[in-house]
Every structure is written in structure tokens, then in C-alpha cells.
Predict the structure.
Amino acid sequence: MRYISTRDRSPAVDAGQALRAGLAPDGGLYVPERWPAARPANPDTLPSTRLTDTASHWLAPFFANSPLEDRLPAICAEALDLPLPLTPLDDGQAWLLELFHGPTAAFKDFAARFLAGCMAALRAADEPVQTVLVATSGDTGSAVAAAFHRRPGFRVVILYPEGRVSVRQAHQLGAFGDNISCFRVQGNFDDCQRLVKQALNDPALSQRHALTSANSISIGRLLPQISYYIHAVSQLSARGQTPVDIIVPTGNLGNALAAILARELGLPIGEIVLATNANPTLAEFFAGDDYRGRPGIETLANAMDVGDPSNFERLTWFFRDRDLRSAGIRAVSVDDQTIERRIKTTWETQAMAVCPHTACALEALDQRRLAGNPGPHLLAATAHPAKFEGVVEPLVGQAIEPPPALAELLTRPSHAQPLQAEYRELVKIIRSDQDVA
Ligand SMILES: *Cc1c(COP(=O)(O)O)cnc(C)c1O
């Protein structure tokens, strides 16, 4: 499998090169040159098997003819061996796909661990230390940090928008130390993302410091996410619950694009609903307006505070010959007040505490039920509610116990340096930190 750029002005590369580069040289995002044929039925993909088997079977074509081809099963076995409960809701026809049982309690652990496994496998022993740059609205940074923590040959530079992440998220981001450095940027998430993109697009800097990205623009993040949708949909299919509509809390469109690609692979998936917070870009676009990227606004579902989703370019590329607005994709925007109400109602009616992002998906489900859609739905539950204690605890009126891995991180000391949202400031850090790891 070769990968080309969404902007068509970069040479085709193999999966290993695409993964290491992050962005294509022309500033576009890597996409598979050809879409793989639907996979034939294989006993390995039966729903009773583990996610790690589903993943190595379905992802194989994407890594064919690359240095990762032979390592793929081992990488999947190591990275994706995380609990993946499918929890029925009271609704009877809807299931939460709980993606938050990894080390940092958000879905991004799956992809970050997979990416780190691939990058480690690709690394030659005599190569200089690689710098993984990551802009985070809260959860990516800690997932990437956990995945690369103490991995020889890598250092991670995390940029997060100061004051825009929860107290526990901030603590977690700064708690790793060792080969992980953490910066609180005076700006919003889009500023962080812009700085990272600019550095990666700077050929001299990028080469000199072996820069790479771990943001959701990386093909190494997107691809593994496809596997948990395939896994869950196969289980529902075995119970006669397909075609199933999928609702995904959405910010940069990485997770939702994976659900869309699972459907492109032939899985029995109906509509895909992008559940966004009050950032209206996607909801407006799917309602018929022109696409208009803009700065993100702050909401309670802060991991989705994105006004110009980075994977939109990839989405339009996949649908370049089709009308994206009639492709079975919908978008719903949920404001903060409604998020709060939904968290409260879910607690009162189902005794279930949910994070503000998952609440957006639950709200979208409710709206679809009210609009007369009784069919099966799969909802991505993207983070553990204990990560967003400041929002969730007052609404449910009690403390939410952090899962063990998160609790452990919270007991460690935490440190983040301030950083102005100026490119030259980032460049200084990248240059100066070179010796640290
Ligand atoms: C990152 C994140 C999202 C948004 O995912 P995208 O892939 O950026 O659309 C949703 N919920 C949580 C908890 C997240 O951390």
C-alpha cells in the first residue's frame, strides 16, 4: 500500500514513511493511494476473538509492502490489548463503546500506543533521538506521553492551551517527566496546532531535530481507530443488531473519520453522527453552509474545542467523487447547558456518570429517538468521567473515583513551563531541548 498527499504534490510513500513524516511535504495529509478490497470473512475476525486479532487482520492491507508489515501482529498485540467493554444503555437498542480503559483514561490511548509501537519498530538503533511534537486539547498529550514515556530514542514535546484543560488533565500532562517535556501555551488549541504544523513544515528544523508528529493528522493514529469500530460492529452484527448507526463525539474528526472508514471497508454501518460541542463548523457544513474554519471556542467538552478540524481535509479527499453532504454523515452541535443537562439526566435515569464529550453523543442519540429513529446505535464513550471531575462531580453530586492508572499519575508531582504562542519561542525549545533526552 502506498500513501499519497491530499494535496497531490508529494511523492507516494509506504506506510512507514507516511507514519514517520506525519504531514506530507506539501502540507497535505497522507491517505491510502488505493482503498483496500473488503476483507474476506476470516475466522480470526469472528466477534468472539480479541481486538488485537481483529486489528491485525483488518489493518494488514494498509501496511502491506512496508517495513511494518511483519511487525503488525506484534504491534497490535502490544498496543491494543486494552479492555473494550460494550455497555448496553437503558434504551435497549444502543450501546456505549467504552474507549477509556487505557492508561490515560481516554480513547486516544489506543491510537497513541499503536503509533508509538510503529515508530519504535521503524527506528534504526543508530538513529538520532526523534522529537515527537504534539499539540493537545487535553487528552492527546497524555496519551502520547504515556505511549512514549521512557522509550529509548524518543522525546516528546507537548503543547497545551493554558487554562483550557481540566485540573486533572493538566496534572497528568506534566506528571511524566523523563523524556517528556510539557508546555502550557498562552493561546487556544488552534494556536498549539498551528505552531506544531509550522515546525513540521519547516524542512531545515524538521530534519535537523528529526521532528515528527503524533497528532490526529498522523496515519498511524487514524488507522488503529478503525479496528475498534470493526470489532464492536462485528459483535453487534453477530447479535443481529446491524446496520448500526454510530455516534462519535467529534473535535478534529480523527475518531469519527475512523468510523467512516470502517463503513468504507464494508462493515454494516448506517449513518455516522458527529456529535460536536458548541463549535459550529461541522454542524453548519452538514446543514448546507460552505465550510468555514475559525478559531475554536471554549466549552465544557474541551477536548473538542476545535473550530477548524484538521481531518476535514482528509474527509473531503475520501469523498472527492461523491457528495459529502449526502454520504450518510450528520453533525449535531450541543451547547454547554445541554451537556450539563445530559450528564445530570444520564446520572438520574441510568446511574451512569459520563464525561462531557460522551454526553454530546448521548444528547445526539436522544434527539434521534425523538425524531423517530428507533434503530440500533453505537456510541463512542471517549473519556472516563473522572478526568473531567470539575464538570461532572457537581452535576452528579458525588465524587467520581479515578481509574487506577489515572489515580497513580495524579499522585506524582507535575510540571509545565509557560510558552508564548509564537513560532520563534517553539523553535527555541526545540533547539535547546535537543540534549535533554
Ligand atoms: C480528542 C477527544 C475527542 C475528539 O476526538 P477527535 O478525534 O479529535 O474528533 C472527543 N472526546 C475526547 C474525550 C477526546 O479526548
